[in-house]
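Entry, Tuesday afternoon. Goal for today is a structural model of the target with zinc ion bound, before we commit to ordering more compound. Inputs were pasted exactly as handed over by J.K., no edits. I checked the ligand SMILES twice against the vendor sheet because last time a stereocentre got dropped in transcription.
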Amino acid sequence: MSETPWRVLDAELERWAALGLTPQFWLRDDDAVDATDSLDRLLSLCAKYRIPLALAVIPAGATVQLAQRLQGLEDVSVLQHGFAHANHAVGGEKKSEFAENRPLDVMTGELVQGRATLSGLFGDAALPVLAPPWNRVGAGLVARLADAGLSGLTRYKARAVHQPAPGVVENNTHVDLIRWRDGRTGAALADMTTGLAAHLAAKRTGAADAQEATGILAHHLAMDRTAWATLKALLAKLATDPRISWPSPVAIFGAKA
Ligand SMILES: [Zn+2]
């Protein structure tokens, strides 16, 4: 790790190692509905570097072909990516499927239905963990997650608290392979390593919850050449770094199907 893109992260990992601490990393990919070439590409990368994958699947669109593609892949867990990935935001609000203006009972019903769909398709691989589309869900619905049979939540940026509601563990992602507001172009490797180092430093100094695993966010259907190259470089380097651990999503969320 002497090349420039790695310098800041390498230095931060050395600080953790000096403290006798091993930071946890994890990989989440969003928007899966079907078995596609780009999904194959992602699965191949994860298999090559033996990285556990948390695949956030949209229940309303999920196909039998996707379930068949994932069958037997023990290092792939399925998270619940909302219900239909429909935007219900009104006015100038940011995109959200679980917008504050919607009735809680309706949204809770969608979560229950989505959970049943994923359990039916993916069996034990489907974890009771909600990855809300656009990483947005209001506090009212978070308080209902346990009632909907969900015990995990994952959004974006450092979590405020470990348990945002009774019986619900939150673990977010912290760096994004796509720069959505910059023409949806792929993030450069240096941007990702800098972002990872920033979350590790925040955890080390107490500015962020040290127990939260540091998450990389991917979108296999929307990644350009740069994003794929960056993901490959990250996994190739970080998968075998003895200073890092890659716990499974089951371990991170303490969630069993
Ligand atoms: Zn999404």
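Residues 4-250 form a domain with the TIM Barrel fold (CATH 3.20.20.370).
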